[in-house]
Amino acid sequence: MSRxxxxxxxxxxxxxxxxxxxxxWDVTILxxxxxxxxxxxxxxxxxxxxxxxxxLGVGSHLRELSGLQGAAGIQRPxxxxxxxxxxxxxTERFGEPVIIVHRATLVGVLADALTPGTLLLGRTAEDVxxxxxxxxxxxxxxxxxxxxxTAAETLTADLVVAADGLHSRIRxxxxxxxxxxxxxxxxxxxxxxxxxxxxxxxxxTWGAGKVFGVAxxxxxxxxxxxxxxxxxxxxxxxxxxEMLRHFAGxxxxxxxxxxxxxxxxxxxxxxLDEPLPRFHSGKVAxxxxxxxxxxxxxxxxxxxxxxxxxxxxxxxxxxxxxxAERLPRTTDVARASRRIGRMAAxxxxxxxxxxxxxxxxxxxxxxxxxxxxxxxxLTWRPPTA
Length: 385
Fold this sequence. Notes:
Blueprint (H helix, E strand, L loop, with lengths): L2 E5 L3 H11 L4 E6 L10 E4 L1 H9 L3 H5 L7 E5 L5 E6 H8 L4 E4 H11 L5 E3 L3 E5 L4 E4 L2 E2 L6 E3 L2 E4 L2 E4 L6 H6 L7 E13 L8 E5 L2 E7 L4 E9 L9 H9 L6 H6 L5 E7 L8 E2 L2 E3 L2 H4 L8 H14 L4 H26 L4 H17 L3 H5 L1 H4 L7
Parallel strand pairs: 1-2, 1-13, 2-7, 4-15, 13-20
Antiparallel strand pairs: 3-6, 4-5, 8-9, 9-12, 10-11, 14-17, 14-18, 15-16, 16-17, 19-20
């Protein structure tokens, strides 16, 4: 039986482990965190990603949650619509809904589907040897007592999957000349709050170089995300107050949703602007943010990691085919997301007016034009071989 070691138990790493197991591989997933905490916030499971979850046998768990419904689109800070569509039209066009879930929900669904004993927590991959497939893990020590929790060990695999995120140590080792992640000039805030009642529409609001997005989670809560120009690594003493400083004057329910937040997560937005030359080296394959970290503007980060997972499992014995299929596609998606981010970040009044007018006219002249532009991304289907 072929053996794989997956480094990282995020969405991409867990999905890869599950995809490989369904093809008969012996899989070990190493996760440096001592437990899978319910961290993060909401994410979009778009039709392309939902098809992957179906192929992995877990799509039904997500389909029990509500998809986007009713009006959706982009508004101005005063509440006027720039462009809008009906989520039903998108479902009809792509054959699947967009489902918004908490990240922890999807992580739990994937982890529960793995063979018991697959996931090893508190295990840090210290080094990887691409030619031999050797993975060396670090000794884990309890910082309070000094007791050794797990001893250092060496694992050998036919395939090593580096799903270790934006700041991937494996990527840095395999491609030391690559510039790595760049700061986009934008920071983000994320909150999850109880539904306040009444009608909440899944929308984004754009203005003065800032964005505020609202999405409904399938469990009855509301997920909000916001971005604004910022220098790298900036932090406020009170991040909720900082959000209100940026968005208090915007249309309701934005200020009320911020005021209801008890926890605010702030993250600078970084991405890999320069694509890697390939997604593999020897027996090691890079996946998800480790391979192609992108901005969140198209909501495709986790979706592309899920695509990676099933394509990698299909071509696990020929990693050059994995690179050939995934590198061009993820490069295109990342560049499209970056373009949307730059367009949303316009803060010159004249440029904003031109952007808003063009988007509004496009929506009126061809209501399905925006959806049609998403065809290359959302119509993707997993390989059947």
